[in-house]
Amino acid sequence: MDNMDLQLRASFDEFRRNKNAMEQIHKDTLVCFQNIEKALGSHKLGKELAHEIVTEMTMAKQGSVDASMILVELEGTDATTLTSSLSDILYTKEEQEEVSALFAQSPALIVVGQTNSGKSSIINEILRSRIVSTSDQPCTSRIVKLTYSKEDYVRLVDRRGKTIEEFKPNDKKIPREMIELREGDRASENRVTAKIEAGFDIPFLKSGVDIIDSPGRDENEALDELVRVQLKNILPFIVYVIDGHNLFTALDKSVLDEINERKSDLDIFFVVSKIEPQEEDSSDEEEEEDDEDDDYESVQDNKKRRVFEQLVKNGLLTDDKEIKDQEYFHGLSAWKLSEYRRKKRKNPDWNDPHKSYKEYIDAFERFQSCLKNFSDTSLKASTRRSCQTLISVLQRCLYFFIEKANSLKQNRDSVIAMLNRIEEEEKLVHDNVAQQVEKHKSEIVDVMVQAIDDLKGTVPQEARTFQYGEEFSLPIRDGFVKSKEAVSQCRKQIQQLVFNAVFKRIEVTLMKMFSTRDNFFEELEQRVKTIEEEAALDETTTYEASAALHNNLVKCYQVNPDIRSNGFSWEKLFKKFREILVAFLKHPRATITGKVKVGDPEWKSKTALETISEINVPQVATELIKSLKSHFESCHNQFIEQLKNILRVLRRGGTLKDEQRKVILDFAPDVASLEMLCHSVNDHARFGRPQPGEMIGAGAQGNVFTCRNIVTPEGKPCVVKVVPVGSESLLKDLTLELHTTRTISHPNILPIVCTTIEPNPSTGIRVSIVTERMKCDLQNALKEIPSLRIRLMILLDVALALQYLHHKGLMHRDIKLQNVLVDENNRGYLTDFGLCKPEGLASGSLVGTPIAMAPEMIAQCYSKSVDVYAFGILMWRVCEGQGNQPQNIFLFPVPLIMLAINAKEKRKPEHKDCFLPSCWKLMEKCWGDDPEARPSFDDIVKDLKQILDDKCII
């Protein structure tokens, strides 16, 4: 097995592991939701909660559902009926199908092309063996599926999988008579639709990929349908072979259009076969002209260039790279490769002294390398699509359950009022955008009029030398054609030349139109931020809408970067523009009579000029504006629908009883565990396994190492924290920590780059958490920062991060010097969210660093104001400058005793002479005994900014 086969095997081994992992996560998700159903159906309060969940999530999905009707339907039902409905809502059938597509289908390399295009020869070269018999004469062939088997076999099977014939090959070769569809077979539908299944002990197949040799298309409808079924039932990687003798034909275009229509998210790997020179040169007049123009160009390069230009012209490839650098476009000569290997077999010492085969061998080696990368990329993309679907399911459930639990401590009316204001602001912004888009209409008309005037002088001249596309075989004789269809094809190609020229001239204006969406998005976010800042002036206001807004609403206007979007793309706009131009030519074409000299430069020039003159500029501009406005209207409607869904959920929410909240506390960690596993598969497919380097730190959870193979999206170095998980409680805490960290995004909170999970022989599992590498923690940084201003700016960074967390309904619960990291620019980043919890999920347990614990934690019933108390202690140590602990605080090994004594004696940190009065005043407010009287982080941020306004602080 050579290096190529080993690399492919490694890719497919990884894919199988990911596929098996996702299948298990999918099954565990179903079991988890069944357990939730049982928990909710086991007592009356649970059933009431289930009623609420079914009602609210159904309304959130269907929008206009009448809640009273749902309640009537659920009233009187038993737990089985109720929980079945809940299960369908938590994880819909459509989502289950999307996820299970990964492990329900097998990956295969499908080689597609026209009859006698050289597909079988290419397959034989990939396999390094003449497995598939070839023929010099065109013939109708069956589908051939090749797979790995220790024992060689060849079977002819019907579409139900029943064996019709079986053959034991002695020389690893499928007989040609089995592959060809014989005349006697055509009378039997069973034999026409039969396919060849063959297994061989070949290294390439052992890597884990099947190969399917598909027949030429449009020869037999039954065979065509069989190919369509193959595309539907597998995870295909398509290699499309184009005959280097015939080049790109109209039939090739038709087949590729159908593939793209059925599998629009698939990339296609193109191979031009038979690139070696033909024995007899064609005497065609047009080819002679090409030879004169391309004396410097080899036959191989000429064939590749001509096919590549057609693929680019038809939107199947882009010309952003030179042909030699295109990873998904190759030219091969199976005949030359076979000839080279035959000579090597006869004389192993022969080494191609004249380098006659070097170009062909180099091309094949590059093809192999790119094919490996193509397969690897396609496998990972399939894995990530499945992961992202299941992650969205689990995140949605967690978000809903956490918000349900948080509703005990939140002011629902304030949130609803804030969302209503957001709805009003969105409408204002949307209406403004619609007006701005309409204003572009006159600009487009002016640009198009000017462009058309300019093009009247250049395009007709360009049309005189225009060469018709080679995918159409035009019956031109002496420069004349009589066929209406042929003349129509020529005219369409001239029109396309004109359309391309017009589009390029107005491209800048169109880009301005579509950049309006980005302006809309920025303005909308700014208005939302303003509303939240105003609402923050009222300490009683809550902010559960913030996460909902950014997770569910604003995304209506965003394009997902990981998954192909159904929104507008530049390619779709160009296609739409061409359609509009064709649809709104002012006058129909004249009827074709007699012979037309389509090869005459004068005819080409005249046709181009007529096309330019026939463009209905006002109508084209109107249709473009209409398309853009329709797109924005769709975004607007989706935004409003999502907003109303959330409002319905909030209005129906009600206050949960403690027993109901306990149910949520029980199953939320299980859902978070599944989410963590899913992220692990997704991140492993995206980044690979983190490779620890030098150990740079150790903590209670685990050790921290440099990371050798992963960097941030900005290219910055990373560290990997390796956490051994030896108990279920540790796992639950870690999963909720990771969920919380992934759902927050703030400039002063250190984000997670990726997480992976691996078996650990000693503890069960090991979790690797990759983050950006910082200079050090604040404990070690303080002694190196003599400037009070810089230390206070770091403190402000921490306060801003905590302000963000509290607005999200989260408590950090472990604020200390070691949990603040500092970068090379002395920017502060809050980290370590092991104890961070949504207020609704916090159990009130005694957690955190004892010296920073608030007195009310003794009763194990507290709010997010405990973070304010801890921040006051942090501020004391930052202002002290050396990181020392206050001497006035009683220290004791048992946290509960230490906390009780300090609370009873009302001990607080002592005053230091180096403290600024304004800083000391803020500290005292932070560690006040009354939790309700402590400042919010909105106040703290404001006070710190005022302190830093003092220019005397250095």
State the gist of this model.
The protein is of the alpha/beta class and 954 residues long.
Descriptive labels:
single chain; alpha/beta; nine-stranded mixed beta sheet; five-stranded antiparallel beta sheet; 30 helices
Describe the protein.
With 954 residues, the protein is an alpha/beta fold. Helices cover 55% and strands 11% of the residues. The chain has 30 helices and 19 strands. The longest helix is centred in the middle third of the chain and has 53 residues, at 412-464. The chain is globular. The chain starts with a helix and ends in a 6-residue tail after the last helix. Mean pLDDT is 77; it is low at 63-84, 281-296, 534-570, 587-593 and 653-657. Residues 277-300 are annotated as: Disordered.
List the helices and strands and how they pair.
Elements: H1 3-41, H2 44-62, H3 67-74, H4 79-90, H5 93-104, E1 106-113, H6 119-127, E2 144-148, E3 153-157, E4 163-167, H7 176-179, H8 189-192, E5 195-200, H9 203-206, E6 210-213, H10 221-233, E7 234-243, H11 250-262, E8 268-273, H12 285-293, H13 299-313, E9 329-331, H14 334-346, H15 358-406, H16 412-464, H17 484-505, H18 507-535, H19 544-553, H20 570-583, H21 601-614, H22 617-653, H23 658-687, E10 692-698, E11 703-711, E12 717-725, H24 728-743, E13 752-760, E14 764-772, E15 776-777, H25 778-781, H26 788-807, E16 810-811, E17 820-822, E18 828-830, E19 837-838, H27 865-880, H28 895-904, H29 917-926, H30 937-948
Parallel strand pairs: 1-6, 1-7, 2-5, 7-8, 8-9
Antiparallel strand pairs: 2-6, 3-4, 3-5, 10-11, 11-12, 12-14, 13-14, 15-17, 16-19, 17-18
